[in-house]
């Protein structure tokens, strides 16, 4: 099976600190469930954002779980070069602007016009508009707050945080299914951006 | 108000679970949620890193050994025992 | 892997035991030198002064040498030696305690003290982020964690811990024993050991955080 794996800089496993060799098979350190080689299907990518994205070949029995797959062996097949610092920054902006879009929907539902918010292009501009909205309450207030927070995170370059906020904001507006729906939009964004 | 995504861990829960995480004592499900939280939360990532550094600092503590006289005394004792 | 390590350790024990029984002074000195730092640290858990700790270590070695002919290797050599040491140190500690006010024996265990001040998290009724950080920790200047001043802070923080937490963090983190060894030595369940380790590490981290926050770091 071919899957994907996010690694920190220098091919480093984000939780184990393990430095992955390129193109060599690596066996799981133990056969215990959970101790195998973890990787992502495309739909899983938004949950595991990091600096490097690799294609990984998996072998042995592969267990598929909710947000990851696990195999007995894996081999980094090649780096996805289009996932770089710029892609990461763009993904952050994507998250923040999606949170903004959801806020625009919430405001519309409440009968509040927000053309300036819908038209804002940059994060700074979006944040300024969000801060100048009239006093809100209830869902619109929360949605505007999520959008503002997501802009702040994205401006800090925290892509995983900004996009997570968008997914949580989707729950506030759309109910429990919003989370998976937003993660799915994000995974399609990554796949398209990187040509996966 | 309850949390938006019930299966996610809060930061307060992360702090309670950090030793179980470092000791590899979490269930697979909890471990996955713990790791996902670390991906999006800078504060918890810093917290876990600080715990790792704290452990490293403890392991770097050096104790003094026995004095030279005490060691010489032990060696005399050893020679005596082995006669 | 653990089995391999255990086998290697017992082969090493057998080699050392043979040497000791053959009266090999070099082997004895090497053993003393490798263990006396950790032994002093363990003895210091139970007695109040460095002098008394040294006496306990000396007494333990006397016990080790006299027990050597009868040692059957049912536990590791190290476990056996530290078992003798703990007995020597604890009985000296008890003798000390009879002539020392109780308050000098360190704080009691504090079951409910949170690892992090609850005011650093948003309240449970926060509309968006209940239980998330309101005052998140900020990254440390890591090259400073291992400097002399920080290590002195860590040493002092460990000394302030309640006895059972101090025992666990000393054996696990300072001396690097694994959890099975620590559970066996202290007669704790895995879960209980982890709870004590968690409280101890959390408190030492908190003290370090204060230290860095007060201008010790960055």
Q: What's this entry about, in short?
A:
The complex is a heterotrimer of chains A (196), B (83) and C (218). Chain A is built from six helices and five strands; from the N terminus they run βββββαααααα.
Would you kindly provide a written description of the structure presented here, covering whatever features stand out?
- The complex is a heterotrimer of chains A (196), B (83) and C (218).
- By secondary structure, chain A is an alpha+beta fold.
- Chain A has 6 helices and 5 strands.
- Chain A folds into 2 domains: 2-79, no CATH class; 85-194, no CATH class.
- Chain A has helices spanning 85-109, 115-119, 123-131, 138-155, 159-174, 177-194; strands at residues 2-7, 25-27, 37-39, 52-64, 69-79.
- In chain A, strands 1, 2, 3, 4 and 5 form a 5-stranded antiparallel β-sheet that branches.
- The longest helix of chain A is centred in the middle third of the chain and has 25 residues, at 85-109.
- Chain B has 4 helices and no strands.
- Chain B has one domain (1-61).
- Chain B is mainly alpha-helical.
- In chain B, 69% of the residues lie in helices and 0% in strands.
- The model of chain B has no long low-confidence stretch (mean pLDDT 91).
- Chain C has 2 domains: 2-102, Rna Polymerase Sigma Factor, Chain: A, CATH 1.10.1740.10; 106-216, Arc Repressor Mutant, subunit A.
- In chain C, helix 2 (25-46) runs antiparallel to helix 6 (163-174).
- The radius of gyration of chain C is 21 Å and the shape is elongated.
- Classes of the chains: A alpha+beta (196), B mainly alpha (83), C mainly alpha (218).
- Chains in contact: A-B, A-C, B-C.
- At the A-C interface, helix 4 of A face loops of C.
